[in-house]
Write a structure and sequence with these properties.
Blueprint: E1 2-6, H1 11-22, E2 26-30, H2 39-48, E3 54-55, H3 62-71, E4 76-79, H4 86-91, H5 93-113, E5 118-124, H6 148-166, E6 171-177, E7 179-181, H7 200-208, E8 215-218, E9 230-231, E10 233-235, H8 236-251, E11 257-262, E12 268-269, H9 270-281, E13 287-290, E14 299-300, H10 305-311, H11 319-332
Parallel strand pairs: 1-2, 1-4, 2-3, 4-5, 5-6, 6-11, 7-10, 8-13, 9-14
Antiparallel strand pairs: 9-12
Helix pairs in contact: 1-2, 1-8, 3-5, 5-6, 7-9, 7-11, 9-11
Bound molecules: nicotinamide-adenine-dinucleotide and uridine-5'-diphosphate (UDP).
Length: 340
């Protein structure tokens, strides 16, 4: 299939481009490079041994999105493009609602007009909110995220269900990711956050490589095994492959829309991740325990049974693999794509 990957220069998108290409798909990317570096595209060409065409524009622009579909054959869209930082979304909610919703509307309209009805959408475990019982299951309702970012995901999921309801020719996969970490095993592509990382794994990696002095662990008095928060970390390579599996599935089904969790089904605490990273890198990760971060849940992990059974997809990589691959990327690219 000819697959348009929106946000394909970003962290998860870039890894998915490699997997889609390996699976025989013909991939093109659209990205505004708001949170990605153009240098990633040369790395993708080298990793895929082909040229991945990229259209550099903002998907909130309906005319440009329409023009792309008018000039390129597109059989399916994998839609990663969006703003994704929870704290940032609290500070500038309008930017988040406008970017994430409008980019999706532009895509949906252009797809409809040009007869493209196959879509894979990046949702998030954050849609489960703070009331859902563990492990999170796809049939849980009501979805109620706790940040503007999370609410954009709930809203887009709602929009997708409404359009699929009225037009059953849609084939839509909604994928709820848990905590993506890790990097391509070559070390050529990985997560390259701008400024101070908000997320745990990139922060640990930057401490290990000497870019930051110490990690701050937000709270050790949670009702968990060691008092620090537990998350379902999933290797970005497993996650990327999940998109190939979802595309295969929706291409051969008559269900207009279906939701799958992509997680491992296991929780790992902050301290466990720190220790695993020290083992993988051989570097000490000095840390201080500080107060809780507002909005953090004690624990979050998936029930991945539906994806296991229906997509034939299982996350196979361990926390040690996640740390080893993150470290390879970080140590080979201490300043991310800035080094290119
Ligand atoms: P990312 O920021 O690395 O990638 C997103 C890409 O989209 C970036 O390259 C950015 O430049 C591009 N983009 C954003 N808005 C755009 C627009 N209007 N037009 C064109 N390009 C645009 O983020 P990621 O970690 O790869 O996440 C990808 C998707 O997965 C996002 O939708 C995110 O919300 C979702 N997700 C991520 C996580 C995570 O922890 N990384 C967890 C759950 C869900
Ligand atoms: N965390 C931390 N220090 C950091 C960043 C994160 O202790 O510098 C903790 C955070 O409190 C949470 C876990 O690590 O318990 C995962 O945080 P992340 O932001 O990576 O993911 P999310 O909270 O979105 O699941």
């Amino acid at each position: 299939m000819r697959v348009l990957v929106s946000g394909g220069a970003g962290y998860i998108g870039s890894h998915t481009v490699v997997h889609l290409t390996a699976a025989g798909h013909d991939v093109l990317v659209v990205d505004n490079f708001g949170n990605a570096k153009p240098a990633v595209m040369a790395r993708l060409d080298a990793l895929t041994n082909t040229h991945i065409p990229v259209h550099a524009f903002d998907l909130t622009d309906r005319d440009k999105t329409e023009r792309l579909f008018a000039t390129e054959q597109v059989d399916a869209v994998v839609h990663f493009a969006g703003l994704k930082a929870v704290g940032d979304s609290v500070q500038r909610p309008l930017d988040y609602y406008e970017n994430n919703l409008q980019s999706t509307f532009s895509l949906l309209r252009a797809m409809r007009r040009h007869g493209c009805s196959t879509l894979v959408f990046s949702s998030s475990a954050t849609v489960y909110g703070d009331q859902a019982p563990l492990p999170y299951r796809e049939d849980y309702e009501p979805l109620q995220a706790n940040s503007p970012y999370g609410r954009t995901k709930v809203m887009i999921e709602t929009v997708l269900r409404d359009v699929a309801h009225i037009d059953p020719s849609w084939r839509i996969a909604v994928l709820r990711y848990f905590n993506p970490v890790g990097a391509h095993p070559s070390g050529a592509i990985g997560e390259d956050p701008q400024g101070i990382p908000n997320n745990l794994m990139p922060f640990i990696a930057q401490v290990a490589v000497g870019r930051r002095d110490r990690l701050r662990i937000f709270g050790d008095d949670y009702p968990t095994t060691d008092g620090t928060c537990e998350r379902d970390y999933i290797h970005v390579e497993d996650l990327a492959y999940g998109h190939v599996a979802a595309l295969n599935r929706i291409a051969s089904t008559d269900e207009p829309i279906r939701t799958w969790n992509l997680g491992t089904g296991r929780g790992t605490s902050v301290l466990e991740l720190v220790k695993a990273f020290e083992r993988a890198s051989g570097m000490p990760i000095p840390y201080d325990i500080v107060g809780r971060r507002t909005g953090d849940l004690p624990a979050s992990w998936a029930d991945p049974t539906r994806a296991n059974e229906e997509l034939g997809w299982v996350a196979t990589r361990t926390v040690d693999d996640m740390c080893a691959d993150t470290w390879r990327w970080q140590s080979q690219n201490p300043n991310g794509y800035e080094d290119v």
